[in-house]
Amino acid sequence: PLEMSAKKPVPFLRQVISVRKKVHRDPRFDDLSGEYKPEIFMKTYSFLDSIKKQEKEMVQKQLKKCRNVEQKEKLQQLLNRMTQQEQAQKKQQKLRERELSLKRQQRELAKQGKKPFFLKKSEKRKLELAEKYAELKRSGKLESFLSKKRKRNAIKDKRHLPSQKNL
User: Fold this and answer.
1) Does the residue 26 lie in any domain?
2) What does 65-94 look like in DSSP terms, one character per residue?
3) Domain count, the chain
4) What start-end ranges are recorded for coiled-coil regions in this protein (predicted)?
5) CA distances, 137 to each of 52, 87, 128, 140, 152 (Å)
6) pTM of this prediction?
7) Which positions ≥6 away from 60 have C-beta within 8 Å?
8) Which domain does 78 fall in, by range?
């Protein structure tokens, strides 16, 4: 490049080539990416479930072969995390299905000419709890679940009671 003296003043009207600034866009918040629909997302990326399953099996095999205590602990944590993610995904899916069924029922009632009735959050929670109890009853784990819940509540109640020292 041509060397220029720093002593000379810069001309007032100099030629500057404008460089276009790159516009970075985040697909999560951009309208160009479209609207997020969980059903479509799950259908599109359903192949990931099979890959995750294979990875989980591979981790289980490694865990059986492993002799190192630290490595075994890390693999166990990884396996636990994988199972928890799987359970959370199933729970989310059940929740979505339940909401879709409620929407379908509302549409049917609207077609019949009845006024739509939307459940409150508390009522949804009650329905979810009733479903959970029914599932526990079917699997035969209801009694153990209730006993644990009683113990937890008893501990909470003891915390709120005044201690013996204060009396």
Assistant:
1) no
2) H---HHHHHHHHHHHHHHHHHHHHHHHHHH
3) 1
4) 52-139
5) 30, 19, 14, 5, 20
6) 0.63
7) 79
8) 38-126
